[in-house]
Amino acid sequence: MATSQKTSGTFAAENLRLKAQVAQLEDRLDHLVEEGGVSESLKQAARNQLSAERLNRSVLEGVSDVVLVANDSRRLTYVSPNVHLLFGYSLEEVERHGRLGFLLPANLVDPDVLESRGQLTNIECRILDSIGRPRDLLVTAKRLQSADGRIMYTCRDITERKRLKSELELLRLSLEQKVEERTQELRESRAQYRRLVESLHEEYLFYSTTAKGTVVYVSPSALNILGLRPDQVVGRSWRKFVDTESPSFKLVEEMEEKRSAGLPVPGYEVEVRHTNGETRVLAVREVVIRDADGCFIANESICRDVTAERETKIEIDRIRAQLEECVEQRTAELRAMYERLLDSEHRYRSLVEDNPDFVIRWQGNGVRSFVNDAYCRYWGECTESLVGTSFFPSIVESDCEALQQQLVAITANSPVVVSEYRVKLPDGRIAWHRWSHRALFDAAGKLGEYQSVGSDITSRRGAEERIRETVVAEARLRHLTQRECEVMTLVVAGSANKVIARRLDLSIKTIEKHRSSLMRKLGVKSVPELVRLAMLAEAGPTLAKSNAHKKSSNGVGIQP
Description:
Blueprint: H1 2-35, H2 40-62, E1 66-70, E2 76-79, H3 84-87, H4 91-97, H5 111-117, E3 119-128, E4 134-143, E5 151-157, H6 159-198, E6 204-210, E7 215-218, H7 222-225, H8 230-233, H9 247-260, E8 268-273, E9 279-290, E10 296-305, H10 307-343, H11 345-354, E11 358-362, E12 368-371, H12 373-379, H13 383-386, H14 397-408, E13 416-424, E14 430-441, E15 447-456, H15 458-477, H16 482-492, H17 497-504, H18 508-522, H19 527-539, H20 541-554
Antiparallel strand pairs: 1-2, 1-5, 3-4, 4-5, 6-7, 6-10, 8-9, 9-10, 11-12, 11-15, 13-14, 14-15
Helix pairs in contact: 1-2, 15-19, 16-18, 16-19, 17-18
C-alpha cells in the first residue's frame, strides 16, 4: 500500500511539474513566434514535454488510486482522470465544483499537524459516492514543495477490504465462541463420564497403566473388587494384584507381549486376589494408547467381576448334564412309543383325513408323499396331482430359504420346528401359512421324512399387522403438540391451509410450518398417508381416549 501511495504521489508531483514547464514553454513559444525567431529544436523540445504529459496522464488513468491537489483555500488545482472510479463523478463535474469538500470531509486533515510533519498517511474516512453508496477511503495527505502551498491527497478505496476484515473478525469471534462451547461440552462430558465410572462400585473396575505396567489411575470400585483403596493401587505394577499361581497369569503376560508388539489384544479373563483371601475373576477389555510413531505408551482397561457368573456357569453345566441324561432317557421312551404309533398308523389315518388342518408328509426336497383332504380342497387339486410334487415352489423365495435353514438345524434331539411363511395361491394372491414340521427318524437315528401340520393364518397376520400399524401410529401421534394435533385434524378433514388459518386464527405461514412439522414427526409424505395414519390411530384404544380428552378440552379432535 505504501509503495502504491508513493508511486501515485510521485506521478501527481511529476504531472504538476510538467504542466508548469509546458505552460512556460508555451509562453516562450508564443513570444518567439511573435518575434519570428523560434528554432526547430525548441519546437521539438516543446513537443517532447507535451508527449511526457500525455504519458503521465495515461499512467494515472490506469491506476485505482485517485490523486487530488488543492491549495490552502481548499480549491482543487488538479484532479486525476480516474476520479470517477472512487467518487462516481466525472472529471468535468469535479472540476466544475472545484472544491475539495465536494469529495472529501472538511475535517479530514489538521493543517497544523500536516504543516509540522509534511505528510500524513493512512487516514481513514467514509464518503458517499455520486449515487449515495458509502465508501471507505484510505487517504494520504502531503504538502507539495511549491510557492502556492498546495496539498496532494492520494485516495484509495478500502471498502471491500474493510468488509472482508469485518467478516473475518465475525468469523474469528464465532469460531472462538464455538471452540469455547465445545470445550465446555467436553469438560461437562468428561465430568459426567467420570461420575459414571466412579459410581460403578459393584461389578466394574476402570484403570490405566503406563507402558511398563505401572497403574496411574484406578476407579473407586477397587475397594469393592480388590479390597484396596485407589491410593493403595496407584503407583504399583498390575502384577502385584494378579494371582501368579493361576493359569491366567501366563495369559496376561502373553497379552502384554502382544500389546508391546503392536498386535490387537482380544478380551480375556484373569484371576486376582482380594484382600480377604478370595479369588475374583475379572473379564478385561483393553484400549491401547500409542504415540504418533505407533509406539505403545499407555493402556486403558475396563474390568467386570464375573466371579458369580463363572460359578453360575459351572452349576448350569452340571444341571445341563443331568438334563441331557434325562432327555436321552425320555427320548428313548418316546422313540419306543413312536415305533408303536407307526404300527398303528392305519387306526388314526381316518382321523388325519377328517382333520380341518392341513396334514402332509414329504421328503427333504419338499416332494409330498401324503396329503389330507383339507389340504387338497385348499389348493383345489386332487391327491394324485399333489403327491409326488414339491411344495417348495409355492413358497415365496425368501421365506423358502428361511424354512430350509430351519430344517437344517433339526436333529433327533430337536426334531420339531414351527414356521410361518408366505405362499403363492393359484389366483395370484399371497397367503400366510403356519406349519409345525416334525422330522421322522428311524431307530438308527437316520432321517426318513417329515410330517407337517399347518393352517392358513392370513386373517390373523392381517389383524396383527393392523394392530402393529395402529401402535406405531399412536406412538408417532404422541409426539405432536396440541396445535399440531389441531392442524392435523383439519388437514385430515380436507380443509385447505387458508381455511385452517382462518379457523385457528393463525397466519398461513404458521399453518404451513405446523403442517410440515407434524408430517415430518409422523413420517408421512402426503395427505393420503396422513389420513390413513390418523384413521389407524383413531381405531386404537389409547389414542381414542387421548382424542376424547382433546375434544373435551379444545373442541377439536381427529376426524376419520
